[in-house]
Every structure is written in structure tokens, then in C-alpha cells.
Amino acid sequence: MIQTIRKAWAIPELRKKIIFTALILLIFRIGNAIPVPYVDTKLLADYINQLSTTVLGLYNVMSGGAFAEATVFALGVQPYINSSIIIQLLTIAIPALERLARDGGEEGKKKIQSITRYATVAIAILQGWGYYMLMKNYGILGEHTGVWPALVIIASFIAGSSFVMWMGEQITEFGIGNGISIILFAGILSRVPSMVSSMISGLQAGSLAWWAAVLVVIGILALVVLITWVNGAERRIPVQYAKRQVGRKMYGGQSSTLPMKVNMSGVLPIIFAQSIAMIPSTIAAFCPQPEEGTFWYGFLNAIDTKSVLYMIFYFLMIIGFSYFYSTIQFNPIEISNNLKKNGGFIPGFRPGKPTADFIKKVLNKVTLFGAIYLGVVAILPLIIGKAVNNPSLSIGGTSVIIVVGVALETVQALESQMLMRQYKGFLE
What we know:
- With 428 residues, this protein is mainly alpha-helical.
- It is built from 18 helices and 5 strands.
- It has helices at residues 2-9, 12-31, 41-50, 55-62, 78-93, 95-103, 105-137, 147-174, 179-189, 192-205, 210-231, 268-277, 279-285, 295-302, 308-329, 332-341, 353-388, 396-420, and strands at 234-241, 244-246, 249-251, 255-261, 344-345.
- Strands 4-1-5 form a 3-stranded antiparallel beta sheet. A two-stranded antiparallel sheet has the order 2-3.
- The protein is globular.
């Protein structure tokens, strides 16, 4: 990765894009350090840290710790990610949006992007209001509970989320890689120094055993190696194109492949499964704690993020969402029809339904392997956290897969741009 960045830096055009991306990330980090008015940030940070195993803890990690400090960018990219997922699902459910995405061309993409922006602002309004009510109900605002403080706080959250969305789009257009992913990457990576510092403090104070620290480091390194290996893995189906004569020229006859990525759904199944699996513990955190020995006490312990039942439920939901997203992104019937139109066929299978059935069979096998991989990545930090008695590791797998995945995608984006400019040193 460092070598690729060094070679890209030698190209003036790419150097400008790298500098532009770095400046946007600098603005993002500055915004993450500016708290909104009227909020007792210390009291809020203590409260959010107590809820590290709930949805609020997940939001805090995704925002790079800004959520626990009520900064201007506290909502981060979450409203945009949520709106993108919702619009993607609605595109399948609503025929008008499906036609717009399929047949609208570049203009259709712009309209869907515009709808996504409006949906982002709407979700930011709801989340900003909910965030304000949370702080108000738990006395984090002190005496500042009037209409004016509410407007200032909610408007700051909405403006910050909209500005983060705009910065992500600017990186995508004028910088390197996917802007939203890179901002998410920067937010998560910014927590690494504090994590290392807390681990060292725990070792010095004796609250963390040395073998536990070694286990955590080995687990993270193993996750990085696994994610790097699977991220580039794909199943390639051979495709043959029939020869056809147009005038005096002969076209076709060449061989190609139909690639299927093992992990085509990315980290979305983990995020969705984790958000849903954490709902019971989130609700329980806002309710009075039941007495020991009662039914509700046993029930809450059974669904706790450290319990075996939670891990099993979490793992099964990841597999289910992986199949759901692979079905959305890869349509065997449509691919079979496109191959037939272009004179292509898979050796050993007739065009049409037999080809679609074969592609679907391969897709199910590939998706199963990718889903199990995502499940292992998500469950391993839970197991390590249970072994070292550190529940905050429950969202570590999501963070690691996002950081490694975005880093690999950014390197691939740099390499592809260098290839387009025929950079000779890249192939050496």
C-alpha cells in the first residue's frame, strides 16, 4: 500500500487528488473536535461508554468517537448509509424506481442520487431529534432544555451530517476512492491511538493480563490476514462467445469469464445484523434493571451481547442478510439473458433457464462461503472479548473489516488510475 501511494505521488494529477482527499479528511477531523453548544460532553461520554454494547456504541464507533462527545459531525455518515440502503431496497420494491435505475442511464442515476440526498437529510432530522431527546431525558443538557437550545443542537447535527455527505461526494468526484467509505475509514482509524493507550494503561494497572493483550493483538492480525485474502477472492465462470460474421469480418469466438466475488455484499450484512441483534440490549439499557432471580433478569442475560445465544442469533442473521444482498446485486436470470443476447454461453449449459439455474447454484455456494466468512469475522471479536472480559470488542470485527476493506479498495483505485495513465513503473 505504501509503495502504491509513493508511486501515485510521483504523478502530478494523482498527487493533487491525494492532497485534496487529505484536506477533506482534515476538515472532517476538525469538525469531529467541535462540540455543539449546551451539552455536558463529559457526562455524555460517560453515559455512552456504559452503553458500548448497544446500538449507541455502534454509532459511536462508526463516527470515530464523535457521537459520545456530541460534536458537529456526531451523526457522521450514518444517515447517508441508512438512506442509501433504504433507497436500494425501495428500488427493488417500487417499479418506478427500478425502471429509473435500470433504464434511466446517467440521468436516472443522478435522480436516484438526489433522492438519496433528501432521504439523508430526513433521516438526519429524525436522528438529531432522537439524540437531543436522549440527552434531555438523562439530564445531559442540564438547564438548557428550552426551544432555542433544542433548535441549535438539532440544526447543528443536521448541518454536520449534510456537510459530511457533501465532503464524501467531493472526495468521490475529485479525490481518491469512495468518499463516504474513506470518511468512515478515517473515523474508525482515529480511535486506534486511544484503544492502544487504554490497553497499555490496563497492562500497567494490572486490570488487563498480558496474555489477554497478546490474544487481542493476534486476533486482530488474524482478522486482517483473513479479510485481505477473502476480499480479492472470486469464482470465475468460463464464458464462450459464438463466432458471427458481419459483412466480411468475423466477430466473436473468444473466451472470457464471469467473476463472482466471494464477499460481494461487503460489510452491510454485519452492520444490519448487528443493529437488529443489539435492539433488545438497547431497549433493556433504557429500562429499569430487573431484580436478580426473576424471569426478566434471566432473559436479559440470555440475550446479552456476551451470551452464546446472542452469538448464534447474530451469526444466523449475518448469513441471512448475506443471501439477501447477493440476491439484490446479482440476478442470474438477467445475466443469462444478457449472455444470450451477446452470443455468449457457459460451456456445458444451454442458453436460457439452464444457464440461469447453474449461475444461481454457483451463486448460492459462493454466498454461503462469504456469509460464513463474515460470520467468523463478526463472532471472533465477541469470543475474544468474552475470553478477556472486554465487551467493547463486540463491534471490533465490523471496524476491522471496514478499515481493511476501504484500504484495499483505495489502493485498487490508485492502481487502476495509474494503469489508465500507462505508468510504466507500476508493472515493474
